[in-house]
Every structure is written in structure tokens, then in C-alpha cells.
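Sample entry (182 residues):
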Amino acid sequence: MQRAGDSAGPPYQVSNQILRAPAMPTSPLLTLSLLVLLALAVRGDLRRQRIPNGLTLGGTALGVVLHAFEHGSAGASTALTGALAAGLVLLPLWLLRGMGAGDVKLMAAVGAHLGPVLGVAASLATLIAGGVLALAVLLRRARHADAAARTPEPARAFAYAPAIAAGSLIAASMPLWHTLGT
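Predicted structure, serialized as C-alpha cells:
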């Protein structure tokens, strides 16, 4: 009998679920779709500091359709759950004006490709990658403080799509790490 506050299993249970998650995306087409989505988002965010709605919403829809094609309605449900779960992790940052809505929608599109477990892992890895990127931006600005004093900085601090791409690729490769380790 469990007492209140006791966990149902060992503390590493959730991380083991992530590592044992199916190697999503499960097909070369889903993998290619995710890579193209991330590449286009990074390119657009670095050039214009915008991630177009057509890209994010189209990427989400494509993830759902490809999963449905492979696994029927269960695949579509998994993709939709992944989109919701991954997007919800970044939603508070948008609400606090810490990032743009395009970043949240891109994370949802990634979740539609990876599913809920790896989608949330991608969101968490993205937050870590974003912290590293923010530190690099701050260090760069400190080195160039003279020029920064003469040139006003745009309101948006930096493009976040590279952090989303890095976190997503790390999470997508986690099942591979587990496979290689066994």
C-alpha cells in the first residue's frame, strides 16, 4: 500500500519513457518533413525575425496527415496530442511576451511530427537551447557595447527558431541514443 507522497515508480521512469518512445518520426517522409520545416523556419526567423503562419500551420497539418496516413486515426490523434502538448510548454512564454506566437506555433508543428512524449522533450530541450542562445547573445552584446550604445537594438532580442530546431533535433534523436546504448 502506498502512502501519500510516495511515487508509483522509480524517479527515472519518465525519462525512460522518453528514451523508449517510438523513434518518431517513424518514416523517412515524416523525418524529411520535419527537417524541411525546421530549416525553413530558421531561415525565415533569421532573415525577417518572423515565422510565417503558412509554414507553422501547414507544418502542423502535414504532421497530422502523415501520421494519419501511416497509422490511421490513432496516428492523427497522436499528432494532434503532440502538437497540443509541445505548444503548451512554450505558451506561458508567449503570454509573458518572452517570445513570439510563431515560435509557439512552430513548436506545435514539431509536436505534430514527434508525438506527445518526444514533443514535450523537444520543448524542454528547446528551453535549454534557448537559454544557451540567450547567453551567447548577451556575451556578444557585452563585447560590442560601444556600437550598441550608438545603434538602438530592435525590440525583439533574437530569433528563437534556431533554438527550437536544436531542441527538436536533440529530442528526435533520443530514441536512437537509447537504441545505440543497448
